Each structure stands twice: as C-alpha cells, then as structure tokens.
Automatic annotation (TrEMBL):
It comes from Caulobacter henricii. PROSITE patterns: HTH_MERR_1 (PS00552), HTH_MERR_2 (PS50937). This is Transcriptional regulator. Residues 1-71 form the HTH merR-type domain. Gene3D superfamilies: 1.10.1660.10. Keywords: DNA-binding, Plasmid, Transcription, Transcription regulation. GO terms for molecular function: DNA binding; DNA-binding transcription factor activity. The keyword DNA-binding applies. It comes from the Bacteria. The keyword Oxidoreductase does not apply.
Amino acid sequence: MSLSIGLLAKASDVKVPTIRFYEEIGLLPQARRAANDRRIYDQDAVRRLAFIRHARQLGFSVDAIRDLLDLSDNPDRNCGEANRLAAQQLHDVESKIAQLEGLRDELVRMVDAACNGQAGDCRVIEALAG
C-alpha cells in the first residue's frame, strides 16, 4: 500500500511539516519518490511515526528517540540501552513533577495571601518581586 504524505499524516496523526522534519533529521527514512517526484510511504512509515509520536508524548528527546529507533531496527541487540533511556526519562519527569509541585505550592501561598486593596499592597505583586 502506497501513501502520499497527506495520507501518511492522517494515518499517523502527525502533521505534514513534522513528517518532513523527521525525514530531514533522519528519524524517518527518506521517502521513495513517484515519477512526479511526490513522496510515497508504506505501512512501515506509519508504524515508525506511531513509535516516534508515542516516544515524544512520553517526553523523550530526539536523540533518545534516535537511539530507541536504532534498537528497534536491530532487535537482536541488548535492550540495556532502552532501559537506561527509559530510566533517565523517568528521572527527568519526576524532577519536573517536583518542580511543578513547588510552583503550585508557591502559587497557593500567593493566592491565599491575596489582598483586596491597592496594587501597592498586593501580596501577589510582593511575592513576585521578592
């Protein structure tokens, strides 16, 4: 089955410019070209884009996705690198969660300390300035 870039975009739920970008940076192999020079894709491209999209949703960097795709393309290799990449991403997500919890706590304090007077006496402005 041959797909145009538009059909690939619909099938994979990835926008056309993103598909072109992934080709440009090597995450997606360059498409075959039809006689009219249009890109032609197959089901492997759909599967690969689904892999990339899911990895991006999980917050993996482009470099990490490149490494994961390399492992996927070479199924006989040891998966230790995939485990390391997943553990690193988990650590990064947990760090972001901790940072967001700190931000939430600070915002709660700001909202709880809010005043109803003039901006010069505003606790929110004071907290941001300090």
